[in-house]
Amino acid sequence: MAADLPHAPDKAALPVERRGLLTIGVMIATILQVLDATIANVAIPHMQASLGATIDEISWVLTSYIIASAIVMPIIGWVSDRVGSRQLFLGCTLGFILASMLCGIASNIEEMVFFRVLQGIFGAALAPLSQTVMMDINPPERQVKALSIWSSGVMIGPVMGPMLGGWLTENYDWRWVFFVNVPLGIICLVILWALLPSRPRRSRPFDLKGFFLLAMTLGTAQLFLDRGSSEDWLNSWEIRIEILMFISFGWLYLWHQLRTPHPVIERATLADRNFALGLFMTLMVGAVMMSVMALLPSMLQAIYGHNVFTTGLLLAPRGIGMMVAMYFSGYFIQRTDARMVVAFGYVLIAYSMWSMTGWAIEMGWMPMVVTGIIQGIGMGFVFVPLNAMSFSTLSPALRTEGAGVSGLARNIGGSIGISIVTALLARNIQVAHQDIISHITAANVPGFAPNIAQALGAQGVAILHMVDAEVNRQALMIAYLDDFLMITYWALVPIPFLLLFRKMARPQHGSRPPAIEH
């Protein structure tokens, strides 16, 4: 069992004098890491042309970053204990800056994938370490507010990434998607070097066998989730082998985790009821948030004809809603049951998704903005109280490891959600297309008959192409709406599980919060 950090109950675990400036540095690191998971997406076509890569090869620019991050996240707690949290944070920040520079100057696809792996390895530690620092440098009565600030960076990053990436790509060059990290990263590094305290080191054996099994489990899982849609899932031998490896390594890891005296993820972390429930809820948040963010950019461009920058602007209201909700979430946590706040957030998300199932092809921008704001508010009311409840019973010494595992759950949830909605989108397009075509006959569409159109020659062929294009557009719209309905149900699934959380006592200003009522 890990020992707690020594500190008075009404003071920060690691007090610092210039807490506000350190918070800025920590948040820059958080935003840069989260931003890089999505900022490169819109630049992929430009990278493909510049690097001379095929479609399959260029997809590894995104896949390599995700897999590298997933493998490293579970051992961040051990590395932090071994080398010190300050040294790890500074080293990973410097490594992330250098890897970003290398990605920007890559001359071929092999170099780009390798540098993205490095970027994922160094970047994986930034979000968990930043969350730990935000909790350690704030006294108990300010920790909910600190989590609100940290959560805003984590949640807004994926929303703003495509817009910033599109603007940089259109106005400068795709390489600036990576170069933008350098000046901001240097500012962050200087602040951290001057102000960042360090947690005490502690000796802890490294579970090499457990790490290998966990790395193979996570790596194969991320691989088949990311490539399943493009490889046609179980029709591909690659995906079949990856799923078989995932099941095999996953079973071996679970067996090892339960039996070894010093597992790669401490059992005390996963044995905490609130934290274990929080992992499931975080996975669902990741599935809902990332699946929506994967669907909307392509929908706004394919259905409504918006360019990349306008698409980013239409997605921005979600970020505004998140910031507003996160600002007020701490206020509500102090005055009501945090579980009710989370439930209210999930209901708002479900309502916004259900509203999106009523979208039409011919529609203005106002419904997009309104549902985006409501959805962002819901996300904000879920994320901050959920983090507070999850970490309220976890030992401070396990915060770094817990933050890493929580971030991993959010990423895996996002990968699962994206894979499911992408697969169903492709399937539902075909189903809707066939259904619409079956109703286009001379009997129910007066004045139109395919045999007459063919008799008109080139003009008739043009008419048929126009009809087919409109059928494809309608089928695509129906498929998007079906996905939105499914995500509506996803948002409602976690609500009953909130009753299993231990209730947080309402914190009073100046006293130690998130205590637990037994």
Tell me what you see in this structure:
With 518 residues, this protein is mainly α. The protein has 21 helices and no strands. Helix 1 runs antiparallel to helix 11, helix 9 (143-171) crosses helix 18 and helix 19 (399-438) packs antiparallel against helix 21 (458-492). It is globular, with a radius of gyration of 24 Å. It starts with 18 loop residues before the first helix and ends in a 26-residue tail after the last helix.
Element-level helix/strand string: HHHHHHHHHHHHHHHHHHHHH
Low-confidence stretches: 509-518
Described by strand count, sense and barrel closure, the largest sheet is: none
What name goes with the CATH superfamily of the largest domain?
A: MFS general substrate transporter like domains
Strand content: under 5%
Termini, distance in Å? 21 Å
Overall geometry comes to: globular
The level-1 CATH class of the largest domain: Mainly Alpha
CATH fold-level assignment of the largest domain: Growth Hormone, Chain: A
Helix content: over 70%
Radius of gyration: 24 Å
Total strands: the figure is 0
Tell me what the CATH architecture of the largest domain is.
Answer: Up-down Bundle
State the helix count: 21
Structure class: mainly alpha
Number of domains: 4
What's the rounded overall pLDDT mean? 84
